[in-house]
Design a protein that fits this description.
This protein is mostly helical and 316 residues long. The chain has 13 helices and two strands; from the N terminus they run H-H-H-H-H-H-E-E-H-H-H-H-H-H-H. Strands 1-2 form a two-stranded antiparallel ribbon. A hairpin with a 5-residue loop joins strand 1 and strand 2. It is found in: Cell membrane.
């Protein structure tokens, strides 16, 4: 009698390993709307490029005058008035935000009225008011320090600085107030419990933590200020737009110089955007466990991975 040893050694059905599932083939979803949107965008872009190409424009004038001495002077003046106006706006904005949060009704009311007035009137109107206040004040008299006619005192540079800086202070006051209020009140109470004064608590505890909230909108305000400086042409300040307009009138390439000015504004705002990115990244160190890689680090990492893959493929 023979015994089938193969059957005897087979395990029970419930103890047999489950059959491997069949490989699933994932079919990606087709987004036809994306292709349609891309085609429409490319068609609009091609139409714009064709319209400008067919226009009666001397495109060679743009690179020829890009580094013109008058244009570069306008660029320098634009950068100067932007930086000084932002410094004035930030310093005064911090003071106004502290005044607005003060328990003193007089200081908080003064700060509220300042913010209400300068946020409620256009920058262009404020520039014209500062430039034409000589109709109201014939002299400026600071006693033994300074005395002169208002028309001589209020130069185009000073009118531009006051018009832009004082207006920016109203917006920076609200940004700083939001940043200060974002800090937990327990931080202030703990600092006071340690014997720190209100000013020292604000300087050492509150403001450093509020910077994470203050910095991003401040960077946006800086970029916006750079573009707003084009309004100082109203007070005859020689900025980038004024220089481009003058060069366009003398050279006969009016539209070309406006395109050149737009290109310079794009260059400057791009540089400021890069600086804003790294500044925000620096102040985000306290809120993120690990900072995301910068664009340069992503490029370096991608190149290293591709190089290591090539090396592995060559040695295999």
């Amino acid at each position: 009698m023979t015994i089938n040893t193969d059957k005897a050694q087979e395990p029970p059905e419930d103890e047999r390993p489950a059959a491997a599932p069949e490989d699933l083939k994932a079919i990606p979803v087709r987004h036809f709307g994306r292709w349609v949107a891309a085609a429409v965008a490319l068609a609009v872009l091609a139409a714009l490029v064709n319209a400008f190409a067919q226009g009666k424009l001397n495109w060679g004038a743009v690179p020829d005058y890009f580094f013109n001495a008058d244009i570069l002077k306008g660029v320098r003046n634009t950068i100067t008035i932007t930086i000084l106006s932002m410094v004035l706006g930030v310093v005064l904005g911090v003071i106004l935000s502290v005044m607005r949060l003060s328990k003193n009704p007089v200081t908080s009311s003064v700060a509220w009225f300042y913010i209400w007035f300068f946020r409620g009137t256009p920058v262009y109107v404020q520039l014209l008011l500062w430039f034409n206040l000589g109709l109201v004040f014939e002299y400026i008299n600071l006693g033994p320090i300074y005395k002169d006619y208002w028309s001589s005192f209020m130069t185009p540079f000073l009118a531009a600085l006051l018009g832009l800086g004082l207006n920016e202070a109203a917006y920076m006051a609200e940004i700083c107030r939001a940043g200060i209020q974002s800090v937990d009140e327990g931080q202030t109470e703990a600092a006071h419990a340690l014997g720190m004064s209100h000013a020292k608590t604000l300087r050492r505890v509150v403001l450093p933590q509020a910077m994470r909230v203050i910095v991003p909108p401040t960077g946006n305000e800086f970029i916006n200020m750079l573009k707003t400086t084009s309004l100082v042409i109203a007070v005859q300040y020689y900025d980038l737009l004024q220089s481009a307009t003058n060069v366009g009138q003398t050279s006969g390439a009016t539209v070309e110089m406006l395109i050149l000015a737009a290109a310079w504004y794009l260059v400057l705002t791009s540089v400021l955007s890069v600086g804003q990115y790294y500044l925000e990244r620096r102040f985000a160190r306290g809120s993120l466990r690990q900072l995301p890689p910068t664009p340069w680090q992503k490029i370096v990492k991608a190149n290293l991975l591709s190089f290591s893959n090539r090396q592995a493929g060559g040695t295999a």
